[in-house]
Amino acid sequence: MSKKNSNVLKNRNNELTSLLFGSPFKNKTKTTRSFSERVKTKQSTSEKNTEKPTINIKPNKQLTPAWFDEDDDDFEGITEDDQISQNQENTNEKNFEKTTNTKKKTKTLNGEKITINRNLAKTNEIKKPQRKWAKIKNKDKTKTNEDLLANQTSTSSSLLRLSKKLPKKMISLTKLKDLNWQSKNTSAITSVDFHPGGEICSVGSSDRTLRLFQCDGVKNTMLKKITFSDLPIKESKFCLNGEQIICAGDRQHMYIYDLRSDNVSKITQLMNKKIDQLKSFCVSDPLKLICLVDVSGSILMIDQRSKQWVKDLVPPMPAEAISFVPNTNKLISTGKSGEILVWDVRNRQCVDKFEDIGVMNSTSIAASGNLKYYATGSTSGVVTIWNAKKREPLKSLMNLTTNSNLLQFNHDSQMLMMASSEKKNALRFVHIPSFTVFSNFPDPQTYVNKVTSFNISNDSTKIVIGNNSGNVYLYRNVYYQKW
């Protein structure tokens, strides 16, 4: 740009500034100017740097400021003392940054690099002394970071254990989205079972379908749906540590679904055993056994790996219900006589027997994980809790008035779940060891219809309830889980 054009542009900018804000050069000779005049000068200078040379504004009349503040004339600007104080503060900040940026040391803790600044800690102590009540009394100065972390972990674990002590009277359950909301069953839910990992739940139904759901409580995505054309499912259980699912019903054959290979196989030969009517069914992964009760009341033992018949256990009276005792080689059974038989599945013989004189026609049985309790249900609805070692009844619960055919202890034996499939909302939770029923579930707003199946996850964090309408309700137990 030529010198002549530059001067023309400068004159136009000065003219524009003078028209809009007044001339900035009027009081140039004065040593002190008002705040409003300094603002006008600054704005005119910025306009001078940003205006394009094509602007040519010639207003018809002189523009005046829209408002005027009388206090602007009293503003004297920044004094020399203020400037010295500001410079001193900036100098201190620079020295502080320079000091804190030295003597840094990097350490690795749990796979993460941590930079330790020793001068920063010292400077903070000087600028902001720590209060006496906030100081940590460390008597043993030889403790390392690993020791402190281990101590913290043990403390957290102890608090967690304390928080898992189930209180009496009231149980806190949170209703989540239905497990099978994406694909509702068309008939009654006959079996629900959690994968050992607790993230997947299988749902078997008399509509001949097996569904697998991701049990997260939010989406509950359906992962798989298998239809068996010739098998209305009565029981379905995970086996081989969750690698397979075995499905059985009132048929001569069973189906095995392999989760790894995504294949379905059919078992047709079990030494010509009649299983036209399946009464009870249970699985033990540690023992690698599947046990079921056939129409005659005998207990069939099947190897999980080969799916071959192993042995029959024949009780004196026909069995109606069976259950493995967790972490042992024992199986318990009960029947119409009301007596409880304890079987050693390795030796394949009955090792103990006791009976409840006041109860007949037992239809369900369960064993607690701490090996202290057995529970039996009867056609009258009475549920009896037994002392497993002393072989004596501890409590008879009469909260159910119809056949109490569903029983299950939770993983730490602090809760017993019981239900009857013959009456609506006939579902109760029992506190152990007080043997009292939680009074707040089901409440008047809870409607589960006729419960046909339920299951508690291995860590007691989730509970699924299936009913005769094809719904599978999912609940979270607040005392065991924080999602």
Automatic annotation (TrEMBL):
Cross-referenced PROSITE patterns: WD_REPEATS_2
Compartments in which it is found: Nucleus, Nucleolus
Principal subcellular localization: nucleus
Region (Disordered): 1-105
Bias kind Polar residues: ranges: 1-17
SMART domains on file: WD40 (SM00320)
UniProt key word rRNA processing: yes
Record InterPro entries: Utp18, WD40/YVTN_repeat-like_dom_sf, WD40_repeat_dom_sf, WD40_rpt
One Pfam family matching this protein: WD40
Listed Acidic residues bias regions: 68-83
WD repeat copies, ranges: 321-353
Keyword set, alphabetical order: Nucleus, Repeat, rRNA processing, WD repeat
Protein family: Belongs to the WD repeat UTP18 family.
Protein's name according to its UniProt entry: U3 small nucleolar RNA-associated protein
